[in-house]
């Protein structure tokens, strides 16, 4: 699929929002990508995951992992299509960890997935968990990369949608200077 087709679907599903947003990273932006609007539709989720996996067809993948909450459904669908297991990390006392009895077998080839990246913080935390468990990350799959492909995890990274979306530290935010109300959508903000 072409980027224009992906963007059209994102807009149709109201997964691209415009306004003044506080991102998970704490930065501010005038555009927010809400992949939960995509993940509620199994057909589109399956299509997007299928597009991601096409790029990885030559990789051996034993396990798929994603951070809660954005990566859970993507990990499940990728694992379903690959015929492997899916697990997820979650925060416990502010630290990304495996819970619920999840384990990563030593030397397992692992695909890490995430819905949206801005700074890559959650993905880096998941990479650390996989490494500590003795797994080997062979690829990263993203639904949306807000850096326009500039983020580098030093691991092959595949993206469904990639566009550089400017974000600002709160003290340098032009939207704050215009007194435009900032909202924090998503899993750690307003509903």
UniProtKB/TrEMBL annotation:
Pathway: Pyrimidine metabolism; UMP biosynthesis via de novo pathway; UMP from orotate: step 1/2
SUPFAM superfamilies for this protein: PRTase-like (SSF53271)
Needed co-factor(s): Mg(2+)
EC number, UniProt record: 2.4.2.10
Top-level EC class as recorded in UniProt: transferase
Coiled coil feature spans: none
Phosphoribosyltransferase domain: residues covered: 53-164
Quaternary state and interactors: Homodimer.
Family note: Belongs to the purine/pyrimidine phosphoribosyltransferase family. PyrE subfamily.
Protein name, entry field: Orotate phosphoribosyltransferase
Source organism of the structure: Garciella nitratireducens DSM 15102
């Amino acid at each position: 699929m072409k980027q224009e087709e992906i963007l059209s679907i994102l807009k149709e599903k109201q997964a691209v929002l415009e306004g003044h947003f506080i991102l998970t990273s704490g930065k501010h932006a005038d555009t927010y990508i809400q992949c939960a609007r995509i993940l509620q539709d199994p057909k589109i989720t399956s299509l997007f995951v299928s597009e991601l996996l096409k790029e990885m067809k030559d990789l051996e993948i034993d396990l798929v992992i994603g951070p809660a909450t954005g990566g859970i459904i993507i990990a499940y669908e990728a694992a379903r299509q690959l015929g492997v297991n899916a697990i997820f990390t979650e925060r416990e006392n502010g630290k990304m960890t495996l819970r619920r009895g999840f384990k990563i077998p030593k030397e397992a080839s692992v695909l890490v997935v995430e819905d949206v990246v801005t700074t890559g913080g959650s993905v880096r935390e998941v990479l650390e968990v996989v490494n500590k468990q003795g797994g080997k990350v062979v690829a990263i799959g993203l639904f949306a990369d807000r850096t326009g492909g500039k983020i580098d995890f030093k691991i092959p990274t595949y993206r469904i949608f990639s566009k550089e979306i400017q974000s600002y530290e709160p003290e340098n935010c032009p939207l704050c200077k215009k007194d435009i109300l900032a909202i924090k959508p998503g899993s750690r903000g307003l509903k």
